[in-house]
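Please check both lines for our workbook:

___
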Amino acid sequence: MNNNKNNNCLVSGVAAASSSFKSAGTELLARTTSEEIIPREILFGNPTNTSPNLSPDGKYLAYLAPSTEGVLNIFVRETSDENNDKARMITSDTSRGIRQYQWAKDGVNILFLQDFEGDENFHLWAIDTTADDPKAKDLTPGENVKASNLITNKRFPDEILVATNERDSSCFDMYRVQYKTGEKVLDTKNPGDVLGWGSEDTSFQVREALVKNQEDSSQIVRVRDDEDSEWRDLITFPYGENGALVEFCGDNGKSCWMTSSVGRETTALLKVDLQTGETLETISSNDKCDVGGIVLDEDTKELRGVFYNYARTERVFIDSKLEKDYEVLQSLGSENCDISTVSKTSDEKTWVVAYSRSEGPTEFVLYDQVAKTTKPLFVSKPELLDYKFAPMEDVVITARDGLEMVAYLTRADTEKKTPLILLVHGGPWARDSYGFNQQAQWFANRGYATLQVNYRGSTGYGKSFLHKGDGQWGVGTMQDDLTDSVKWAIDEGIADADNICIYGGSYGGYATLAGLTFTPDLYKCGVDIVGPSNIKTLLDSIPSYWGPLRNDMLKKIGDVDADEEFNRKISPLYHIDKIKSALLIGQGANDPRVKQAEADQIAFAMQKKGIPVEYVLYPDEGHGFARPDNRIDFNGRAEKFLAEHLGGRAEEFVEVKGATAMFPLLDEKTVEA
């Protein structure tokens, strides 16, 4: 899907010039970020421009930028223009902003996804970028309908494939849509166990289904020879193994590219016979981490490169021409930058490339693949260039049982220990990665070191690492990993043992609650954003379309359905009497994953027992805070909370115009059943 001690308040140089800033705590000796307080609005407000995307023919460039009302919308300009002055805003979102979009293959229309106030029932929309007065067309209408699994194909430029759950809310059928007219027909019906679909490129027929076995949680790759043929099981990955069909090869249906961990610890890239499931060739693997991505020729499906990410991105090039392109791009970029390809034209002669680094905003450039030259496009947040940011360090921490964990450290000071914020990633079946992290930089600027740990159960580090987290929530080794990481930071002289905060969202919010209840002496305070407090009620309220995954989640978490004692053991709600430190909770009222009740029940229970807790609810948010006004508002409240309990400096909190914060503990009338 993070005992009060008095602190002396100190007036900083910035505060002397402006009363909107204040500072507290001991001064740092060797600050890693700017001396001045970096405003929250700059850190957490909208980017100036982001997500550039070339039209298939390269004539136009689309990107996201705020409207005059401060809401992210899609803008389009001619690629040849030197800047964005002549760009047109073609969408008119006035609420949460657009974040997911792509060009249709006709090079005229753009397809984008949008939900309603965070409910995650995303609809797919199409809009003609050349119209004088563009109007978006809803291609997947209907109440509580969710669109996903969008597939486009340049050989069929006027149609798309998209999955929706309009027929059955618990699963997704594949539809073929003529997006210019809105005509939609059912293409492939879901028998009830399919999690996702894939198409073969030359025919644009649905020929792959990823299936979850409800009884044993094995995962099956199902294929067919064409749309009139019967489906057959190609590969079965037993529970505990990882793998997937990546793409059909360009050999008339004889083989496919696939990842698999069977017979090894991490996933390898394989070439597999589509009739027998036999491995024809093992192409590439890394003993430390799973395959992170592959690059294929868009027309021939020939393999060009394989990417990995243990601590940072590593590339294995199959195609020497692609390797040359990356060498050129590396030489043209700033030192210590990571390179990623954001968009390409259909002929792959023009690319949008992103240069990213941990100490500053992302820079986007146009790359002429033939001339081997770049031209600047824009910087995502140019106002960040006015400030100094801390470098992120990748480190390896050894848990008490010897397990090695990749973690990312952002220091506030290089010469003395400081308060520490343990920033726990969500999922938990996800991971943290290297790069510019707004929260870590925010904390560093306020005087707190930040530690982000890929604890057991995180993805990307092989099947054993992932499944060592099975049954280990809360009182098990997943939480021990977080405890051990804090102790590592203390032993290394990075963290002040008396001033540790645990902070996170989704599973990270759960880990925060677990940290305060199961290791109450370790943390001075905690910040929980959309975290579950009772695992049984969490699973009982998940969206219906998560149904095929429920048994898999029970295997990973533990059977809270059958074992009430186990649920009580790992659910923080039942252990609030152990909490010794203050807690701040943030929640979106429309969250479909972690319902508002998860926050309500623990917040009110703590209040009833007189345990310090603050609870902020946003009625127009879901699983996290998408609207900048709400994001800045909550972070302002969190910053004040952290300064009070950890002693760092803080920008003065001012109510954010447009924020919708509500306070259920102060007014029980706002609580919904």
The first helix runs from residue 13 to 17.
